[in-house]
Structures
1.
Amino acid sequence: MAGAYDDRDGKIWMDGQLVDWRSANVHVLSHAMHYASSVFEGERAYGGKIFKSRDHSKRLQASAQMIDFEIPWSVDEIEQAKADVMRANNYSDAYVRAVAWRGAGEDMGVASARNPVRLAVAAWEWGAYYGDAKMKGAKLDISKWKRPSPETIPSHAKAAGLYMICTMSKHAAEAKGCSDAMMFDYRGYVAEATGANIFFVKNGEVHTPLADCFLNGITRQTVIGMLKEQGVRVHERHILPEELEGFEQCWLTGTAAEVTPVGQIGDYNFEVGTIARTISDSYEKLVRA
């Protein structure tokens, strides 16, 4: 499938029924469009099975609660919607996007308690998020934007509004010929990339930022578990910018990114080494098991 995302063949599940792709529309006065009252999940299906599907559905509901609304569909119903979309579009390997939002209703100011909560699930075929970076390592810029304090936003929600600075950071990175950007947090510690968590290697041990002000990704949690099973020591901690120079390997994790080695961040270079390649291969085998 190719072309603009609003002009494709296929079916999208929307508020309890499958509709034609081009008819899956919302009103211009939907609250989410004006005030970012929206949460979403990105998931991948391999061989017809969505990896960690229920974990994603549970997180979708939790994210909605964090930004003060309830999704009127249960985890089981969300799971069925995803299965229906996969079957209706005859997909085996696909990216799956579930999104819930406050729609158009009686309220059109900041408050929106009287507006209906809506839910949609779409899926499409999507290859490697960073192209050929899995072989040679992605090149990252360093963003001028920082992940904010949990006192200012619900930082553990996968909420649309939290990605605004990620979009701007990635645009700036791409203008410099980079695949993505690494972000620091409000304290100046290394945080994450714009849509993926980050890992480093030094002296055979893995270091990854403590997820205390950004999303603790499902892929991140999976990879940490895999590393520990392989006998690799993992340090979840605050990482200072000056430590980047001493790390030997680096990779990103995320549903879209999967496990992607990093070759460069700003002026810092990394090898696509044994641990990075091993965990990338191990993850590929796990999701297809």
2.
Amino acid sequence: MDIKVVRDILGANDQLALKNRRLLDNKKVFAINIMSSPGSGKTSLILKTAEKLKEKFKIGVIEGDIASSVDAEKMSQAGLRVVQINTGGECHLDANMVSLALDNLELDDIEVLFVENVGNLVCPAEFKLGEHLRVMILSAPEGEDKPFKYPLMFTESEAVIINKIDLLPYVKFDLERFEQAVKGINPGVRFFPLSCYTGEGLEEWVLWLSSKIERARA
């Protein structure tokens, strides 16, 4: 019975995710689901990426948190169109939450939409939102063993960002071992080691993302 209930929930979510995707496609909006554990740098990555893309694309953000609007306020101060979702305890965003957020965004004025998911390495990967691209962030201080502990997050992502590489001299993180572990479960994944703090590696990530957006819009 429990298995059937879970399947029903995920099935209903997937149907609504398809509806979200059709809306985004009709409006020519490219949506990116950013997932990670708390503190890995989702907000920083979105802000740094938006800063480099804002001359080419009109950018919006759906900001997901259990509580507060701290990150949404940062987005707004940076001049980005933003809608806040407070889940009230839920550990992930789902398609219904995103659907409600889309109703409160002027999609005709947005070309690229970042969805900052709730900080969690488990649940966000299970729920489709209607996004075009899934990106997972792991910060160097978290350690390279996470693909073994949370494989679904890594298999569901098209790109994996290793953030805070400026801390590599001070933490135990074997970048080569980490990449081998992830490729063992997701051979086609793209890696982007970078630092939102120093800016190292950001250009390669932004160029790749820009090409994805432009191909999709074409």
